[in-house]
Write a structure and sequence with these properties.
The structure holds two protein chains of two kinds.
Chain A (H helix, E strand, L loop, with lengths): L1 H17 L4 H9 L5 H8 L6 E3 L22 E8 L2 E8 L10 H17 L3 E7 L8 H17 L5 E10 L4 H5 L2 E5 L4 E3 L3 H8 L5 H5 L1 H8 L4 E3 L2 H14 L22 H4 L10 H6 L7 E4 L7 E8 L2 E8 L10 H16 L4 E7 L6 H5 L2 H14 L4 E10 H6 L9 E4 L4 E3 L3 H8 L1 H6 L3 H16 L3 H5 L5 E2 L5 H11 L18
Parallel strand pairs in A: 3-4, 4-5, 5-6, 5-7, 6-8, 11-12, 12-13, 13-14, 13-15, 14-16
Antiparallel strand pairs in A: 1-2, 2-3, 9-10, 10-11
Helix pairs in contact in A: 4-5, 13-15, 17-19
Chain B lengths: L1 H5 L2 E5 L2 E5 L3 H5 L10 E3 L4 E6 L6 E2 L4 E7 L2 E6 L4 E6 L6 E2 L4 E6 L5
Antiparallel strand pairs in B: 1-2, 3-10, 4-6, 4-9, 5-8, 6-7, 8-10
Classes of the chains: A alpha/beta, B mainly beta.
């Protein structure tokens, strides 16, 4: 009898806390086009897999009337569950409870589930929807943020960490997502900034909306803080599930192998690339004609579009692609593209994902803005990331491989395991026009018809050097292959590399040019 | 096919031009302007608290020009070299963005 009473009491207690900030606050949340926190978790996890912890945790603040305030779950829901049948740790901030503000206990619930994720070696997903630090708790809130950042760093490279921005995420709160591997944003819902529009207007008199300052599109396209952009929460959850399906659970495992499938595209791979090296094409069409089922999950699709990075499967196993994109900015490397590629390479290397590089680039982006933005130190990150990586590394040179770009894009010299070139490849110190202008400067200047002589000399250079055979004669590339052979060559190279073990000098850690 | 062509622009990388698209961020970039020693610009966004000089006045190197309050700090901006104040583009109490021209100087021949 008394046990039954206890059970009823438990159910009542749970029901109260599970209402979060109450009906009115939930209505407000829905009016903003946002799902309540618990519904978000349930939508993301496999059906009936969610188990919640720390439901009854309460804050201990006594100042500013906080002793009179009960905050359901202290504004955050934490627990474990499965996605695609694989375990994950998850937390979701509840905006209906005091604006999802972060106090010490709220943070400790998060750090507890993060510690759990790291010990169990399973991915950790954080759903952010918070007004920021709970000011009443003062430095207690700051301590909470710091303890989260510390754990983000400890877990980095050990378990995949995913941040989902489904509401405001401002001030110190932004740095947890920034430390995680993948940040998901949703149009009209996500807002991220260090200082909000109010502060900016007070200090500068500049009026800007939250959306224009740090909305989803801005972070997906301009800042690069977000890796995935969706138009709705549902679309965002689907992206997360798709991504996790391609990733291993931790750095000691490989991603799940699925049944190998042939690419779907019927387009002939050699027809994708225009004959003229000056004409653009979409390198994603090449990737799609190489990967299983033509399924390619692009990361950072909108930001630094001049390089393409993302995941696909080859022979049923996850691989990472890094590909110059001639469709945008002629596929040059610049500060942003370098950061994007370097970070992706390091993720793949941490999580045992082989890297396939598709190269077609004319060099680095010229310009004062690039030089002053530090294209030297940014570009160096690519060299560092490729050199450091010990996962299987395969390069296919599709067309242009000029100068520093040739070296940077996983060349043999940076430790590539296999380097192949299509017959359309031009592996040279620079573009033919530039090279001819320097090498034949005297001949061109002394000629009566300078332009005609320049044209002759450019053609001479093209005939002699704008091909893959000079590099092949030096052994810098392993084979010149027909485009149609590429998938077969890649599958073979990958199967040869399965037990790859590469040694690196013992060190605490390297010092990449951050 | 022709419509597709129209989306592409000529994009020069070293000695060759490529047909390609531009990114939103690339279009937003600001052209570089050579800085002038005769233009005192705000190095940080803030509020002009006090101006110590007047137009036409000759000010010696190291003398204070104005106080720019930013991030709760009062920054004293000093004269970089002896010169004449040609124009003052700001007023006390005014908020200025970063890299705003505040004071323009004019060269004087030192006897």
């Amino acid at each position: 009898m008394s046990t039954k009473k206890n059970i009823v009491a438990l159910r009542q207690k749970k029901a109260i806390v599970e209402m979060g900030g109450g009906e009115k606050a939930i209505e407000k949340q829905l009016a903003m086009g946002k799902l309540p926190a618990r519904e978000r978790i349930l939508a993301l996890l496999d059906n009936k897999s969610f188990h919640e912890y720390d439901l009854f945790v309460e804050h201990e603040e006594r100042n500013f009337g906080m002793d009179q305030k009960k905050l359901a779950g202290d504004g955050v829901i934490t627990g474990t569950g499965t996605i695609n049948g694989k375990p994950v740790c998850i937390y979701a901030q509840d905006f209906t409870v005091m604006g999802g503000s972060l106090g010490l206990k709220h943070a400790r619930k998060i750090t507890k589930i993060m510690d759990h994720a790291l010990k169990m070696k399973i991915p950790c997903i954080g759903i952010n929807d918070s007004g920021g630090a709970r000011i009443q708790e003062g430095i207690g809130a700051l301590a909470g943020y710091g303890e989260i950042f510390y754990r983000n760093t400890m877990a980095s490279g050990v378990i995949p960490q995913i941040s989902v921005i489904l509401g405001p995420c401002a001030g110190g709160a932004v740095y947890s997502p920034a430390l995680t591997d993948f940040v998901f944003v949703v149009e009209n819902i996500s807002k991220m900034f260090i200082t909000g529009p109010n502060v900016i207007e007070t200090v500068l008199g500049e009026k800007i909306s939250q959306e224009d300052l740090g909305g989803a599109r801005i972070h997906a396209e301009i800042t690069g803080n977000a890796h995935f952009y969706a138009l709705s929460e549902q679309e965002c959850f689907k992206q997360i599930k798709d991504l996790l399906a391609l990733l291993p659970q931790n750095n000691e495992e490989a991603a799940k192998t699925v049944t190998p499938k042939e690419p779907k595209t019927r387009k002939n791979i050699e027809d994708i690339i225009p004959a003229s090296p000056k004409q653009p094409y979409d390198v994603r069409d090449v990737i799609k004609s190489l990967v299983d089922e033509s399924h390619f999950m692009e990361v950072h699709e909108l930001w630094a579009a001049n390089i393409v990075v993302g995941f696909g499967r080859m022979g049923g196993e996850t691989v990472g692609f890094v590909a110059n994109q001639p469709l945008y900015l002629a596929g040059v490397l610049d500060c942003d593209a370098s950061d994007k590629a370097a970070r992706f390479i390091r993720f793949c290397d941490s999580f045992n994902i082989p890297i396939i590089t598709l190269e077609d680039m004319p060099g680095y982006l010229p310009g004062v803005d690039q030089e002053h933005a530090g294209v030297i130190r940014h570009g160096a990150k690519v060299l560092y990331a490729y050199s450091e990586a010990t996962v299987p590394k395969i390069t296919i040179i599709l067309r242009k491989a000029y100068g520093g770009g040739y070296i940077a894009m996983n060349s043999r010299h940076l430790g590539a395991d296999f380097v192949f070139a299509w017959p359309s490849a031009e592996i040279a110190v620079m573009g033919p026009e530039g090279a001819a202008n320097i090498i034949f400067k005297k001949e061109i200047e002394e000629a009566e018809d300078k332009d005609a002589m320049r044209e002759i000399k450019v053609q001479e250079y093209i005939d002699k050097f704008a091909n893959p055979y000079v590099a092949a004669s030096k052994g810098f590339i392993d084979a010149v292959i027909e485009p149609g052979e590429t998938r077969g060559v890649l599958l073979h190279s990958l199967s040869m590399s399965k037990k790859k073990h590469d040694y690196r000098p013992a060190k605490k850690h390297g010092i990449p040019p951050f | 096919m022709e419509e597709r062509e129209e989306q592409f622009v000529d994009f020069a990388v070293t000695a060759r031009k490529y047909k390609t698209r531009l990114t939103a961020k690339y279009k937003q970039r600001k052209p570089w302007v050579s800085p002038s020693a005769y233009e005192i610009q705000s190095f940080i966004p803030g509020t002009v608290i006090k101006i110590f000089v007047q137009e036409g006045q000759i000010v010696k190197e190291g003398e204070p020009l104005l106080i720019l309050e930013a991030m709760k700090m009062q920054n004293r901006i000093d004269m970089p070299f002896t010169a004449k104040i040609k124009r003052i583009e700001i007023a006390e109490g005014e908020r200025v963005a970063k890299d705003t021209l505040m004071i323009e100087l004019e060269n004087i021949t030192v006897e």
